[in-house]
Amino acid sequence: MVQVTEKAHHRTKLTPQAKEPTVPTTFEGLGIPRVVVENLVLKHLAAYPKSDILQLTKLLAVNSHLIEDILVALRAKSLVEVFQASAGSFSSQTAGHVRYGLSEAGVQEADTAFLKDAYLGPVPVSLSAYCEMVKEQDVRAQMVNRADVEYALSDVLGAQRMIGVLGPAINSGRALLLYGGAGSGKTFVATKLLNSLNTSVYIPYAVFAAGNIIKVFSPQHHKRIDDNNEQTITFKEHHDRRWALCERPSIQVGGELTMDMLEVNHSEHNKVWMAPLQMMANNGIFIIDDLGRQPMPVDTLLNRWIVPMEYFYDYLNLPNGQQISIPFILTLAFSTNLDPEKISDPAFLRRLGYKIQFGPLEEAEYRDLWESIALSKKVGLADDSFKQVLELHRNTATGYYPCIPKDIVGISRDIIIFEEEEPVITPKILRRAWEVYFTADGKGGGAR
């Protein structure tokens, strides 16, 4: 029912919804056990030998005085050695010229620390600090209006017909079910919804919970919007560097989803404990695409969300056998091209706040989309080409789904380049592209 056009879309500057986290200047302010920081310093010195205090400060993202304190303690235990010392003190005037490395005993301690957990990065924040921040950044604390949603979907064809439903859905904070034909724009629209919120959020690099370091920030899923003045060393000029200021996360997963991805886990080659997808998506949107095509039964997947949807909390099992609860404050969106009545039971459907059906575009919108995509691909449309498109749709009883123009124009362009033709899509080229795109029974390309 919808599709992006090539019209320019400029986003207003995002502002943080929550108050920026201040820089802790004491170990009590860090909110985690001191030994966790000590182990991180050992691991960083193992990974980056002969680092100075400024390097360690940037790597661990905490106040340099805390790093100095840790180094004094590690030297007293004969775990750290000093190199190229220009003075015998740890004063701020000389600390930058002193480099530190691990002693033989320090290397053994670092190896032990790596065996416990392989995390290497900024000092984690406490679980309580994480939970408090997630609650402060609740999307429901800043309601959107019609103008906000119109702005978010301003470059989406056919969106006006859906704004009256999508706006209240965002404000509700409840789960959504988006259903309709494949290629009708369900997932695309879901990813655009966050544009209605002109706020940014703080994401921790890692969280310390019940003896475990859980890595949360992921460059794949989180987009930073500033560098927090990382080139400066004056802490008055930035917030707590253990947090990254980001756009609200938008995480999408499809048929590859497994139940392990919804628990604290690690990959086969990387022994760092990673946050589950829904934890990474907190304060944003989590889209489960292609519902019904995952390897587990649909009921198993849907039942996983009953408690979080009902109480806005999720319970996670940790590697050491303990269990923690975290806020579940995000927009959970299920997307499917299957019949919702056939893949889920009525009890679960009742728990979904909004069930929104997507369909094909109208003819005028469809024509605009063809022209827009052809322009973006730098090819022209012959005068009678769109007439040919409509005829092909009628002959195959295919709806005007927004996925079709992009795919058919792409195939047509491939044909033009191969045949060394003029960059114009003719009816003949269209028919060739259509035959390639669809199967013999008229199905294909995810358009039915």
UniProtKB/TrEMBL annotation:
Segments of this protein annotated with the region Disordered: 1-21
Entry-linked SUPFAM superfamilies: P-loop containing nucleoside triphosphate hydrolases
Domain of life: Bacteria
Organism: Vibrio tetraodonis subsp. pristinus
Lineage: Bacteria, Pseudomonadati, Pseudomonadota, Gammaproteobacteria, Vibrionales
Name this polypeptide is given: AAA family ATPase
Location of the AAA+ ATPase domain: 172-362
